Amino acid sequence: MLCTLFGVSRAGFYQRQQRPIDTSRIRLRAKLRELFVTSRRAAGSRSLVSMLVAEGFQLGRYKVRRLMQEAGLRSKQPGSHQYRSPQGERPDLPNRLARDFAPAQPNQVWCGDITYVWTGSRWAYLAVVLDLYARCVVGWAMSERADAALVCTALDQAWQTRGQPVGVLFHSDQGCQYGSRLFRQRLWRYRMSQSMSRRGNCWDNAPMERLFRSLKTEWLPELGYLSFTQAKQDIGAYLMGYYNRQRPHAANGGLPPAVREQQLKSLSRIC
């Protein structure tokens, strides 16, 4: 009667009863669910494969996809977006980077940008500095004002964290904060050169746009934060913790940014 009700053949029912339980598959599915929850339901099959390999498991993307279907796990990553075409350039600050997003060493090219986050009763603004070598976050700052002081604070933190490097090329969009006198003086003090994207062309600063997309789709609550303090603590944990040290990155061959940079240091000592 039950087989008829659920549309299962009697032979299939008895065969399933005799089949042994695959305990290894159950453990793998539990580990997959744990990593998926850690990513706040954002990791897809590619990211989960890299995470599982780092944990010592050996399996492919299609098996991970099947396990996700069995466990009812579905990534919340959004689809593609249509961007505007470029409108022109700023003549005094040309696009020196020219979409060369693969420097040979750390501390050669940094890029920066600003985004906004809801913090209970008002918007807060987040400025991030990214080292393009391994896509590692090297500095960030949050404020209730989107002014030049915000981007200067993020740059100061990056400069101190990375050991006060010189000769860095800093790339950004044409935001007024990055074109301000205060920020350009700070770059001059640190002996850095400046590059700016073409107007209306977000692809010229694609690594920063991708970082903010990951932050907003993977980590931020759907309704925002309850306070500025909560937002600052949680976003800091994502940028300097999960993103830098745990989240696999396609530009690094599936390695987190901090792990990729550590590999470079190990190879340098060997050579």
Automatic annotation (TrEMBL):
Biological processes, Gene Ontology terms: DNA integration
Domain Integrase catalytic: 102-264
Signal sequence residues: none
GO molecular function: nucleic acid binding
Family annotation (PANTHER family): TRANSPOSASE INSF FOR INSERTION SEQUENCE IS3B-RELATED, TRANSPOSASE INSO FOR INSERTION SEQUENCE ELEMENT IS911B-RELATED
Name assigned to this protein: Putative transposase
Source taxonomy: Bacteria, Pseudomonadati, Pseudomonadota, Betaproteobacteria, Neisseriales
